Amino acid sequence: MSLRINDIAPDFTVNTTKGEISLHDWIGDGWVILFSHPKDFTPVCTTELGSLAKLEPEFLKRNVKVIGLSVDSIEDHNAWLNDIEDVTKARPSYPIVADSELKIAKLYGMLQTSIEGNSEGRTAADNQTVRTVFVIGPDKRIKLFLTYPMATGRNFNELLRVIDSLQLTAKHKVATPADWNRGDDVIIVPSVKDEEAKELFPDGWTTIKPYLRKVADPINK
After folding, report:
1. Which CATH number is 13-153's, of 3.40.30.10, 3.60.140.10, 3.60.15.10, 3.40.50.300?
2. Which of 23, 33, 45, 163 is catalytic?
3. Rounded mean pLDDT of 52-68?
């Protein structure tokens, strides 16, 4: 299954470290980060889960829930939490999906559907493509996905920056330029002609090129 941006995120009901969750119901009217891992007790992933645990309050401020996934059992997940806390001094309070049957990894296109069996006997290298972050919006559509190699830890501050952009551009007819951060100027989207722009942005804008008009961040005015 090949997923694309704006596709409906496949729904599932699954056991997690916080009990059974049905994804679409759990999302509700908020946003979700679903981030996956090839196996428990792996070094890079251990640091990642701890890092995200520390940043979870920042995501919650943005109405973003966090849910992890790893290709192992609930029992392994719970034991792994102790290691994560020991290494990073932070214990994840967000749910971690048990995908020992590989069903969700296949549902989200992270493993081939032709793979047989379960997680038993499989190594992290066997599951190395299960290293994807999905950002899902209130409409249950995929807004972003990023897949990382096993040797490269993820930057969750970058995900906060992206979510700030996604939430801003969902409400206003603007786009965010390269290296944008909350409070920086934004770009009026080309589909908004100058007459409409005068109504939307009465304080005016700066024209860099006819197709590139910068305006103050409408949230931080």
Report:
1. 3.40.30.10
2. 45
3. 97
